[in-house]
Amino acid sequence: MASAAANHEAHPAGLKRWLFTTNHKDIGTMYLLFSLLMFFVAGSFAMVIRAELFSPGMQIVQPYFFNELTTMHGLVMIFGAIMPGFVGFANWLIPMMIGAPDMALPRLNNWSFWILPFAFTLMLSSFFMPGGAPGTGWTMYAPLSIQAGIGMDFVIFSIHLLGISSVLGAINIIVTILNMRAPGMTLMKMPMFVWTWLITAFLLVAVMPVLAGTVTMVLMDRHFGTHFFDAAGGGDPVLYQHLFWFFGHPEVYIMILPAFGIISQIIPTFSRKPLFGYESMVYATASIAFLSFIVWGHHMFTVGMPAPAEMFFMYSTMLIAVPTGVKIFNWVATMWRGSLSFETPMLFAIGFLVMFTIGGLSGLMLAIVPADFQYHNTYFVVAHFHYVLFSGAAMAMMGGCYYWLPKWTGHMYNETLGKWHFWLTTIFFNVTFFPMHFLGLAGMPRRIPDYALQFTDLNRVASIGAFGLGLTQLLWVYVVYQTVKGGKKAASKVWDGAEGLEWTLTSPPPYHSFATAPVIE
Amino acid sequence: MSLSFRNEKSSGLLTVARARFAAAMALLLGAGPASAGIRWNFQTPVTPIARQIYHLQDLMFGVCVVIFVIVFGVMFYSIFAHRKSKGHKPATFHQSTTIEVIWTVIPFLILVAVAVPATATLLKMENTSDSALTVRVTGYQWKWHYDYPAQGIGFFSDLSTPVAQIENQEPKNRHYLLQVDHPLVLPVGEKIRFQITAKDVIHSWWVPSFGVKTDAIPGFVNQSWAEIDVPGTYRGQCTELCGMGHAFMPVVVKAVSQADFKKWVAAQKALMVASAAGDNTTWTEADLLSHGKAVFAANCSACHQINGQGIAGTFPPLSAGKPFSAAPAMLQKLRHRGFLTAGGHVVMGPVKNHLRIVLHGIAGTPMPSFSGQLSNADIAAVVTYERNAFGNHTGDVIQPAQVAVLR
Ligand code: HEM
Ligand SMILES: [Cu+2]
Ligand SMILES: [Cu+2]
């Protein structure tokens, strides 16, 4: 396999380079930095939320502003931190992993990124509108979202922009993967990360338009006299929820499948052993994606669905746990009788495995309809989705960051600090979110700015954990900064157990990855 | 009575571990402001359904713990035994159809096994037939209304925790945020059917000890039921985000013996007769003002604020000449009603317009209609109050009869 000829290195410098770039690495970097920024913006909202919840009684914010913060925390984390973060990984890695020089549609790629800063300016500016940002939660249920102030319209338009950005990005990824693979790289030879992104991209194309349509209906109800969701006008408030969750459940898999991909790259490397059951991993991912379209009703068990519908959604939801289980078992089997070492990326991968499984198991408990009547909309659900989204999606990205950072920058990161980052994150994460299971069981609803006295102790624990978790992430930024600035030179093959085309390129790789396509045997 | 939060002897698997963990936590935290202790599981169930749910949850928790221990037992053994630092050489296997079939089928069978009791409980929950008593529950921003259609009784149930406690100016009492002026009263030992709906946005009516949580949705009537077997006071909360006051609309149920329930019904009926009498009398200005102040605090202050100054952008002030910023469309509507133009706004303008707004609400805005909630005397009082408080010295005195003609 030949490494790239480095004759295409010329590109504009300074601001122009970033504004006009069509290079997958530059765009990947911008996505990643943007996602990091949004992670801190949304994280700072969470800090205020946890500060307010440190004690019963209203402390530092007003109830309505608290709802605005909850809404924006969720929207910005999901659409600003997690989704663009994974697109950043896709941009950097997919061309390098499949032996392509760049993405298939580079200008589209530039545009997909540059929509984001505008979309989030629009979204965050809703805080300064009369009536403030929407206080509806990220789910924006009608009729509450119809009642909200003008900030809601800003959020709706920003969701339209984000939808355009995501769909364009997804199309680009699909086209790249299907057309630009090096000779000999059949679909079933692709790295797992590429597979998971291919499937994620199809999910994005399928459901982002549904969300765009749904929020447009809200917009019409708000301003153009329609009554889609207004019972008084013959509309149906529950319809909103069906439409939202038809988008919403695939969306949660959009946020976790690329994480599965990253973990499937890291674990074999540090086990020095090929991924166990590659084919069943591919099939499991595809069946999770398929099932994700028929389980949306599990978010709506209490809306008064007829019993047969509840049974259908209960069984389909339980079924989705089977392929998810297969993935966990395969990762453990990959480690089994390997030759394990525990560099920072591997620590994050193991942390992911354990804590994501806790989230999966609590998901299984939530799928049991009668019990869900008790869990629904309590802190138990908050615990569940933070175990799958923070220790799942976000920690997979942290692991991926340490894994590929030497490749991207050409420098090794500081291993000691990386390990500190892992351990502090893991400890504080569990201090924050584990008690929330018990808060939910004991009866604390989610999305409330003030609570009854018997919830005080565990809320204190959670708040202390949250402050620690927030501060720890500054350490991450410091490690990344240090690595970008300099450090020990990284070899082409950074990790002795790593497999894949990206490790045949120099660290950092040439501006255009594979000018001549490598041939896969 | 505080049955609902009392620590009961927990049944089920990890009781000892839980108790130890609780003790450790208590040491760690010292005595927190809540001496109630930490609760680790559902509130004490007092209906057959809630009890079944409790057992389902214990079963599921057990299944999850066992799966977790097995899977991660294997993984941690591997981490311990198969390390590179110990010189372990990697094996090369990467596939085994047999084992992959096994670990697809076994979880599937486990799931079938738990789906059976879950389905059985679900079908019982959904069966609302043969009830002895029907109660209609209606969610409003931000309080509950309870109706007993067969008994002809209806009333609102509003948070009774004083604002001073929420604002940390007074010590918080034991049932902080979980107390109401009029709890729902129910008899024990018979099947009660709830018909649940909402007037404005979606709410959700939850009583943890009953295992009942049902969304209250405008335009829909959802049903659920409970058969309570222990008298006591049970507390829950609204569990669907419904706006600013979502945390402040608790559900409190008093379960009493059937004899006590009959007595309570009779007493309520007598009260209603007395209140109807209020609509037929002429009130003094002082009585109207003091009653109006109470009505305002209970029904209007959540939006217009207790000082009548409103909240910029969403809720207009009811105080003459107070400036207000909001979206152009809203200002347009307000201006149309004379808001901020010469002569002041609705509270300073013609009495009839003012009464109509309070009676019928303002369609398409959060301003609700109060014709179904408040008696003529209540409305007369609150309008009199609004027109003479917050610096609006109109001197108008409105009588219940003036309201009656506009209904
Ligand atoms: C074994 C797999 C899983 C099962 C069985 C499962 C099940 C459920 C159920 C039943 C609910 C609804 C709870 C309620 O509101 O009453 C829920 C909520 C949620 N789940 Fe999962 N889940 C699984 C995996 C995931 C994953 C992988 C993610 C994301 C990466 C995720 C993210 C969420 C989120 C964000 C919510 C809450 C949405 C909201 O109300 O705002 N779940 N899950
Ligand atoms: Cu879901
Ligand atoms: Cu609510």
Fold topology:
The complex is a heterodimer of chains A (521) and B (407).
Chain A: H1 14-20, H2 24-52, H3 63-98, H4 106-125, H5 144-147, H6 151-179, H7 192-223, H8 237-254, H9 257-271, H10 278-291, H11 307-335, H12 344-367, H13 369-375, H14 379-409, H15 415-442, H16 456-485
Helix pairs in contact in A: 2-3, 2-4, 2-16, 3-6, 3-14, 4-6, 6-7, 7-8, 7-9, 7-10, 9-11, 9-12, 9-14, 10-11, 11-12, 12-14, 12-15, 14-15, 15-16
Chain B: H1 15-29, H2 48-81, H3 97-126, E1 133-140, E2 143-148, E3 153-157, H4 163-166, E4 184-187, E5 192-198, E6 203-207, E7 212-216, E8 222-226, E9 232-236, E10 251-256, H5 258-279, H6 285-299, H7 301-304, H8 328-336, H9 351-360, H10 376-388, H11 400-404
Parallel strand pairs in B: 1-5, 4-10
Antiparallel strand pairs in B: 1-2, 2-3, 5-8, 6-7, 9-10
The structure holds protoporphyrin IX containing FE and copper (II) ion (2 copies).
